[in-house]
Amino acid sequence: MIEYLLGVDGGGTGTRVLLANRSGSVLAEASGAPSALGQGVATAWYNILAAVRQTFYIAKLAVPDWSACAMGAGLSGVHHQPWADEFVAANPGFAHIAIENDAYTALLAAHGGRPGCMVAAGTGSVGEAIYADGSRRQVSGWGFPVGDEGSGAWLGLRAMSHAQEAMDWRVPGGPLAARIHQRCGSHRAALQDWCANAGQNEYAQLALTVFDCAASDPAAEALLTEAAVAIERMVSALDPHAAMPLAIYGSVGRQIMPRLASATRARCVASPQDAVHGALTLVHQSLESTT
Description:
By secondary structure, this protein is α/β, with parallel strands linked by helices. The chain has two domains: 113 residues, 2-Layer Sandwich (Nucleotidyltransferase, domain 5), CATH 3.30.420; 148 residues, Nucleotidyltransferase, domain 5 (2-Layer Sandwich), CATH 3.30.420.40. The chain is 46% helix and 19% strand. The chain is built from eleven helices and nine strands. Strand 7 and strand 8 form a beta hairpin. Helix 4 packs across helix 5 and helix 5 runs antiparallel to helix 7. The radius of gyration is 20 Å and the shape is globular. The two termini are 13 Å apart.
């Protein structure tokens, strides 16, 4: 018999879990290490279970047998079917699992399953919409390093390119290039070594420097303008008639919001719930559809 519901939001930078009773009342929340499937299914399960156990600890409840729990999970990487299949096959005993991509659970959280669209820009970026006929559409989310326009990693790549050009004197140097040289390498060999070993998360951290330098360096401001244009394109692709409410998620997305067109900002949902709440909605819906 299912006694507890779990909502999981798992991405490349961390995992969040909500613990609720069978009626849906939230009992506790916890966070943990990343659980994006691209980092390994075994690692994803390990980090999810650690965060789940933490929610029971916070709620002052004994950790039950997993058969007493149903889980809804919005996970980065679910779009890759082999990873999704492997994740489900590795179920450690949960009575019911519903998985979706983390963009869809964010969409559920923002609009409660009603028509609307959302763009999430954090380490990566993705946009998704649900329409009046129940159909869905996703844009971007192609992954690092080619896609995920307007994301932290996307900004970091471009900031590094600018720093390399400045080191070569192909473009004027400035605060942005100087900060990256200080952090990643002040001569050619050191900068090359950093780039050879950096991944998505390391590049995403450089986005913080872009934001920090925006007021003092036109190159940084230009990159943020490009990011805003990229997000606007995602919104337009999802909702070309600008008719649906919009939610903007993610640390980068929220900082980019002031740079979006005023008409776009006017459609934005104020303080939408986090994707982890959408994961709880997902497991509710999935259980209802099976009873």
